[in-house]
């Protein structure tokens, strides 16, 4: 699987987590890292930018992450999506399977798992 190190989108409403993901992506040579704190903001960015890589919190203030991912896929069918959650992926894996999610990361393992994904996939740019 190839992850393009071009435009990335971080969808996260928690400032500390958002800043941490942004730092990991910048350190992994992504050209542009856009940030959205809500589903509405994320959809606006997706409608205006060619996003290749997305991290998406499953719990946002204005929309449930699964519903947002469905809308993301209507706009962008090819971006790699990493889903972030504080709850187990077993609960969410069934509804997310249909949207071709790259990976699911528990927030407690965020930096380690995100770095592993970015190091183990073929990064092109």
Entry summary:
With 125 residues, the chain is an alpha/beta fold. It has five helices and seven strands; from the N terminus they run ββαβαβαβαβαβ.
Write the layout of secondary structure elements.
Blueprint: E1 2-4, E2 7-11, H1 15-27, E3 32-36, H2 39-48, E4 53-57, H3 65-75, E5 80-85, H4 89-97, E6 103-106, H5 110-120, E7 122-124
Parallel strand pairs: 1-7, 2-3, 2-4, 4-5, 5-6
Helix pairs in contact: 2-3
Predict the CATH topology. Answer: Rossmann fold
Query: Would you identify the CATH architecture?
Result: 3-Layer(aba) Sandwich
Q: Round the Cα radius of gyration to an integer and report it.
A: 13 Å
Tell me how many strands there are: 7
Helix content bin: 40-55%
Largest sheet: 5 strands, parallel
Strand order of the largest sheet: 3-2-4-5-6
| Anisotropy-based shape | globular
Question: Can you offer a commentary on this structure?
Answer:
This protein has 125 residues and is α/β, with parallel strands linked by helices. The protein has one domain (2-115): Response regulator (Rossmann fold). The chain is built from five helices and seven strands. The chain has helices at residues 15-27, 39-48, 65-75, 89-97, 110-120, and strands at 2-4, 7-11, 32-36, 53-57, 80-85, 103-106, 122-124. The strands form two sheets. It has a five-stranded parallel beta sheet, sandwiched between helices. It has a two-stranded parallel sheet with strand order 1-7. Helix 4 (89-97) links the parallel strand 5 (80-85) and strand 6. Helix 2 runs parallel beside helix 3. The longest helix is centred in the first third of the chain and has 13 residues, at 15-27. The two termini are 13 Å apart. The relative contact order is 0.22. The model has no long low-confidence stretch (mean pLDDT 87).
